[in-house]
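Researcher: For the record, we're logging two predictions in this thread. I'll number them. Prediction 1 follows.
Model: Prediction 1, sequence and structure:
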Amino acid sequence: MSVTIELDWSELETALKGLERRAGVQAQRRAMRSAAQIIRTEARHLVPVRTGSLRDSIKVRTSTRRGWVNAWVVAGKPHAHLVEFGTHPHTEKISRGRFKFKRRIRHPGAKPHPFLRPAFDRKADDAIRKVASMLKDSIERSQ
C-alpha cells in the first residue's frame, strides 16, 4: 500500500537550495523520518495485538535518490496485509499437522483490521506540519 502526498512549496524549495546540498538532503531526511514516526506511532496504537510481533515490525524507512527524499511506514511481517485488508473465505491445502487426514480445509476468511491507512488519515496533517517546522528550523539555523 502506497500513498503519495505532493505539496507545492516553491518558497521552501528555493530556501533549501540555499543550503549546502548535503546539509539540505540530511535536513529533509531528518524531517521526513520524524514525520513518518508520528504515523508509525499511531499505527502501533491501532494494530491488533496478539503476540506483539506485528506491532513491533512497524518501522520507518527512508531513502534518497536523484534528489528525492522518501519515507515509508512499513509493517515487516508477511501477514501484515492480511490483517490490514482481511481475507475472503477460501480453501487451504494441508500437507502436515493437525488436519493431515484431510487434503483441504475451508478457511472462513478474516475481517479486515486496518491500522496503517487510518494512522495515515489521522496523522497526515501533523506529519506535514512537522516536516514544515523542521525544514524551517534547518533553514533558519543555516543562515
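Researcher: Logged. Prediction 2.
Model: Prediction 2, sequence and structure:
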Amino acid sequence: MSNQAVMEAKNVSKSFGHVQALDNVNFSINKGDIVGFVGDNGAGKSTLLKILTGVHEPDSGELYWKGEKVEISSPEDAQKLGIGILHQSLPVIPKLNLAQNFFLTRELTNGPLNTLDKKKMEKICGKQMELLGISKDITQQNVETLSGGEEQTLILARTYFFGSELIILDEPTNNLSVKETRKVLETTRKIHEREGIPIVYVTHNIPRVFPIANRFVVLERGRKVADLEKTEDLDVRDVEDLIVSGEMGGNREFEEAK
C-alpha cells in the first residue's frame, strides 16, 4: 500500500457530557487502503465517523487532509474535500428511477430553459452501473424495484463518480442477504481497484469486512486499542478477540496501539 496519508487524525477526543466518546485517537488512512474501523456498540465508531464527515467537531486534536491541517465543521466541508459517505439509510427516492437518483440534486440540464437532459443522465448512469456489474438497461427502472445490493451499488457508483477521494461505508451490509453482501463487497473492491481510492468500512461485523480490508483499526470504549495490517497469520478470530477482551489469539496479550 502507498504510504501517502490521505486523512490523518492526531489525538482526537470527543465527549458528550460525562461520556468520553473518543479519547486521544490517532490513525491514518493511506491511498490504496481499505481500512476496517471495527469495534462493538459504544466503541466510538459512530462518533469518529461523524467527526470525519463534519457532523461533529472534536473537542481536541487535529485532522489532516493530504498533509494539511483542516477543520471539518459541516458535511459540506467534508464533501468539498472529497469525502463521500454511504450511510446505513440510503439517500434514495424509491419512486424515481436509477438515473434520477444517480444525479439527485446534481441534475444535468441543457438549452435556454434548463430542461433535464434525461438521455445524457441515463447514458452516464448506465455506463457507471455496467462497470460495476449491473445491467445498463435498468436505468429507467424505479429504485423501489431494486434489491438492497443493487441500491448499495447505485450509491457507491454515485459517490465514486462525483469525485470522492475517500469513501466511508457505514455498516453497508447490515440489512442485506449473504448474496447481496457479496455483491456490495465485490463492488467496493472494484471501485478501489479502479483508482486506488481509500475506503473506510465501519462495522462491528468482522467476517464481512475481513475479506476486503488490508488494515483494521480496533476501537474499544473510545480508545484505539490496535492498528493491524492484515497478514497471513491474522484471522477473523484475532480481531474479534481484540474487540471482546483486548487480547489476540487466546492468551497472547496485544499491546495498546499508540
